[in-house]
Amino acid sequence: MxxxxxxxxxxxxxxxxxxxVRRQADRPLxxxxxxxxxxxxADAGLEVGQVDGFxxxxxxxxxxxxxxxxxxxxxxxxxxAQHLGVDPHYAAGxxxxxxxxxxxxxxxxxxxxxxxDYVVLHRALHNPGGRYHGNPIRAVAGAQQWTAPQxxxxxxxxxxxxxxxxxxxxxxxxxxxxxxxxEARKNGSRLPWSYWAGKPLATEEYLAAPQLFDPxxxxxxxxxxxxxAVFVLTSAERAADLPHPPVYxxxxxxxxxxxxxxxxxxxxxxxxxxxxxxxRRLWEHAGIGPGAVDLPQVYDGFSPFVWFWLEVLxxxxxxxxxxxxxxxxxxxxxxxxxxxxxGGGALGNGRMHGVPQMLECYLQLSGRAGDRQRAAxxxxxxxxxxxxxxxxxxxxxxL
Length: 399
Description:
By secondary structure, this protein is α/β, with parallel strands linked by helices.
């Protein structure tokens, strides 16, 4: 990726829609996706027939043996286009971790290159019935033979290892993590579409929750849900003629582990060192630094990610995020604090895989956040782990 982002601020988000977030919806995921897409297109001031591009990521966000069925457990860009009655000029799906970063990049590149004029970007999340980690595997081959038989598999083990490392290395306490989770739930409880609407969490409730995989407890994990979010993007020139203030894409960066490890072995140094490289590329691509950002939205599919992202992005020194947060550093109701979870995140909305971060940037920077409106001009939306995901810089005015 070149240092200069040739398409910086040339593409903008111009509309959105979000379904209700439920543990399990009463209608198929595909139906929700079609309805939400139609609502987003109308919100952007467009007709369905004007949309000529579709992007998204159909990775099934669940563990165990769950079938991938388009329109039921996943919704691919091609499926959505077909069921909207559109024969698109451009349709592509991002296959990887950090789904929204990859999807945004594909949408921006398609518009900037002229492959499409108006692009629908969607994320449709499904929570299959049955036990979340129900797994019928009786034999394991390949690299996982060295980990799975010992019980080291799945996302809980993956995040518990670096979380425990962080606690021991930097003298952090689980009590400090309560400030992360209660902040996310406080803000999520204010959103009508959130699974946790009207349900903030007290510190005492967090500390009393059962541990699932030491030191990860129930409330350190986002809850699996059914939900759909859709965004509409177009060029900055076309955006000027549409009803809502545009929010420009100013830069993005993705990361992937480079050190060879056993499956799902994420040492803390891998996360922080790899994340620092992701952040370096992000700031270089956007042409700014962390000091220009007044609306960081860090990823929190698991609560320790909040500490990790705050540090790799440069908002506090390495090893200090736990103190920064515990001292009210991200309290969105506190003047001068960094509103890093003002959109509720995954812990405050449900497992929407980076949607809350992207949506909060769009709502705040376009002035559409209603009673929650903040004074902000530059946002960053983070997705997945710092070394295995990505981030996007959004602005209300071209940089």
